[in-house]
Specification:
alpha+beta, Arc Repressor Mutant, subunit A, Alpha-Beta Plaits, four-stranded antiparallel sheet, 23% strand
Length: 248
Amino acid sequence: MSGHSKWSQIKRQKGATDARRGQLFTKLGREITVAARQGGAGPDANPRLRLAIERARDANMPKDNIERALKRATGEGGAAELAEVVYEGYGPGGIAILVEALTDNRNRTVSDIRNVFARAGGSLGEAGSVAWLFETRGLITLDTSGADPEELALRAMDTSAEDVKVDSGSVEVYTRPEALEAVRRELSAVEAPVSSAEVAKVPKSTVTVDARRAGQVLRLLDQLDELDDVQRVTCNADFPDEVLAAYA
């Protein structure tokens, strides 16, 4: 399991606070709107939309917010067209970072992202500069609260998942992107508590960073993630456990 995955879990826990919940709902709503525009407003026939709605529900997003996001997909409320853009860059120590965004103003978004990289001692790269270091996979994280991680991992191995990893009490289940929903249902059938499920960019290998540099990278990831247009941030850093504990 990459340190980035642990950062993502801690970030989700922090996102439960009122201060961040509004921004999270905005990002989830954008994903619902774009998914519905691309594949239709019926979740049964649109896997991306179905997953977006499930993620919104997992985050306790109100039903009214979900319905408004679906209405925006049909142009109601004068919603702006959102473009999907992936930016690539380098963090301190040459850490590879992918930034996925939904934006109605590419110039604004790339300027904001470039400034965050520059202030953190990183740099925005050219298209294709780091994308090859990542692969698209289905990623399911299990909630280990009050459960034995090894037992949960054994249950996950009984599904059609491609890989199951246990590290520091966390359990991650990897699938083919198109099999994500099916594996999620299988996990529910064996009573494995799903904390999150998404199609994600996963690093093919990770780079261990020292404690000093890890703090710099974590701050950069947070600052990128806090940008309104940014939907998801991924890196190939592996952080020391003590740094992540302090960060949490």
